[in-house]
Design a protein that fits this description.
This protein is α+β, with helices and mostly antiparallel strands. The chain has 22 helices and 16 strands.
Length: about 600
């Protein structure tokens, strides 16, 4: 019996101990109590702080390390919390603008949750998929195309150039609606990665002479002939940073394909069917309305005029009899719905002007309907999964609610109460601080990056001995597509800047025109030559006046913020739970990990 009681006592003791022992993430690190009793006591947990640290860009992390850096970061969180308390005191939490903002956040978050579940998460890749992707990633294609507006004519074109054996160029000249038709459908030479994802998928395993299609890409149909396909003779080893970069590319490609597939599946299930008579009448009435509201324009179409015309609200006008005619039927979640022409007109009335059709052609009408139906499909899928009422959504909106309170409080108490700097103050500051407004020495360089040092040395030797041209070698061998597309030129490399740090030494120490030794660069080794170098320059007031205004404004905002926070802090008890400080991640470690992650993704 004693053993039983002893066992029960031990169990009770453990239960009490566990009940009083919160998980590390749930432990408090800061507590703020409003002495006025308007705002509830606010507790910042270890988990909240560590999450904020993890998602903070390296440039915004506090300097230093250890407890000093942790306390500096906590001070920024306390400032935000004080603004929230101030917002509650001012009644800003009831501002109607917050409700409107939260509805926007709710919709955006729900769409992101849907995309994460049905597209992003399933798009993880295996090592085998990365290897396969890399095998065709760098191919270059020469193709001919037949571009058509509907599937029926595309099927006909495909049959003529395959079963019928007709010359592809001749059929393209006869049928294609693309500008390339006059040249037999010939497209410019393109690398595989420059093609639309659906086109990339269709041609990735083809050979010269193959014909593929018809491909439906956003309602336009393509039939393609591969006239030539060239793969690079050499490839970098798939390892290290290069492997990380290719894996990221492969995952993005798979995600693009899956997104197209999911959307196509949803739209196919919707089975959007138009009544022919309703479609014709809608087109007629839309054209009438366009002629009335958007007169013909014979002059040069500037971007401003084009935008104005695109935003014009076009709503077809129907008689009562016409408005009752069936227009389109679709199915969402097994429930069929029919719109009349009157329903369609009302939908266009409630839509932004830029989303209303500007021509009465079937292409414009079906596009406007498909966009509306697709929006309803997404909402149906979101409701089916319960995203709007999920715990994740509640936590997200709670955070956004407080952010809105902070923004509105800052606007009311800082922005609106700060005195803008006068023109005289701006000029006086510039005259007194000319040394702060200089343009650092800069250089324009040309670079070639290859995968390994041995290859870089070989190319350098060929260039020095006159056996190869530097620009030609960049065009054929550089693995950095960004600079390669500019013949290797990188302008305005500033002395001392962190961008492209590997270029700092050659840019400012190498004699102009001389080719550098191989320089370690992201993903490989660079050969660099300096084309031009510029000395430090004094900037004029006209060049930096706006920056001076911005600087002085920022200073005054900060001064007003400090003053306001001091007023609030005087009536708020702020407690730092230093016993839990050791549970906070060191900001220096976070910065190091962030930097390593950025370098691996480069």
């Amino acid at each position: 019996m004693r053993r039983i009681f002893a066992g029960l006592a031990l169990i009770c003791f453990m239960a009490i101990a566990l009940a009083g022992c919160a998980q590390p993430d749930e432990k408090p690190i800061v507590t703020l109590t409003d002495q006025d009793g308007v705002a509830e006591t606010r507790t910042v947990t270890v988990g909240y702080v560590n999450d904020r640290l993890e998602h903070m860009p390296p440039s915004m992390l506090p300097g230093g390390e250890g407890d000093e850096a942790k306390l500096a970061f906590l001070n920024e969180i306390v400032r935000k919390e004080l603004l929230v308390i101030a917002g509650y005191r001012l009644g800003i939490s009831e501002d109607p603008r917050i409700g409107d903002a939260l509805e926007h956040f709710r919709g955006t978050k729900a769409e992101n949750m849907l995309r994460d579940e049905v597209i992003v998460e399933p798009s993880q890749v295996t090592p085998e998929e990365v290897e396969e992707y890399y095998s065709y990633r760098d191919a270059v294609f020469q193709m001919r195309e037949i571009t058509l507006p509907d599937e029926e004519s595309a099927d006909e074109a495909y049959r003529r150039v395959t079963e019928g054996g007709e010359d592809f160029a001749a059929v393209a000249m006869e049928m294609s609606t693309a500008g390339s038709a006059t040249d037999g459908g010939r497209r410019s030479m393109q690398s595989w990665t420059d093609l639309h994802p659906l086109m990339r998928d269709a041609v990735r395993l083809t050979d010269s002479g193959d014909i593929v299609g018809p491909l439906d890409i956003s309602g336009t149909f393509y039939v393609l002939e591969i006239t030539s396909k060239k793969s690079p003779a050499e490839r970098m080893p798939l390892e290290g940073q290069h492997l990380a970069g290719i894996t990221t590319e492969c995952r993005a490609f798979k995600r693009d394909l899956l997104e197209h597939s999911v959307i196509a599946g949803w739209m196919e299930e919707a089975d959007i069917t138009f009544d022919p008579d309703g479609m014709d009448l809608a087109g007629t009435r839309i054209d009438e309305r366009v002629a009335e509201l958007i007169p013909p324009y014979d002059g040069e179409m500037t971007s401003e005029i084009a935008i104005q015309r695109a935003k014009t609200h076009i709503v077809p006008q129907f008689s009562e009899e016409e408005a009752a005619m069936d227009f389109v039927t679709y199915n969402i979640g097994g429930e069929a719905t029919t719109w009349t022409l009157g329903d369609y007109a009302q939908i266009l009335t409630d839509s932004p002007g830029i989303e209303t059709p500007k021509q009465g052609s079937a292409l414009y009408i079906t596009d406007s309907v498909q966009k509306r139906v697709f929006a309803m499909i997404k909402e149906y899928e979101i409701e089916k999964r319960g995203y709007h009422t999920s715990r994740e959504m509640e936590d997200y909106l709670a955070a956004r609610h407080e952010e809105a309170i902070v923004d509105l409080t800052y606007d009311a108490e800082i922005q609106q109460k700060m005195v803008e700097p006068s023109g005289q103050e701006v000029r006086e500051f510039f005259r007194a601080n000319r040394d702060r407004f200089v343009r650092a020495p800069r250089a324009t360089v040309r670079q070639l990056i290859v995968g390994d040092e041995a290859q870089a040395n070989l190319i350098r030797q060929q260039i020095i001995e006159g056996e190869a041209d530097f620009i030609d070698m960049i065009r054929t061998h550089s693995i950095d597509s960004w600079s390669q597309s500019r013949d290797g030129i990188i302008e305005n490399v500033m002395q001392g800047e962190g961008r492209l740090s590997y270029l700092q030494e050659p840019a400012f120490a190498l004699p102009i025109g001389e080719l550098s030794e191989p320089v370690r660069a992201p993903g490989g080794y660079a050969l660099v030559t300096v084309l031009e170098r510029f000395e430090e320059e004094q900037l004029t007031f006209d060049e930096v006046g706006a920056n001076v205004v911005e600087h002085l404004t920022a200073e005054r905002r900060e001064a007003r913020l400090v003053e306001f926070l001091d007023e609030i802090r005087a009536s708020v008890d702020v407690t730092i739970h230093e016993e839990n400080l050791g549970l906070i991640t060191d900001p220096a470690d976070v910065g190091e990990l962030q930097q390593m992650r950025m370098e691996s993704e480069r």
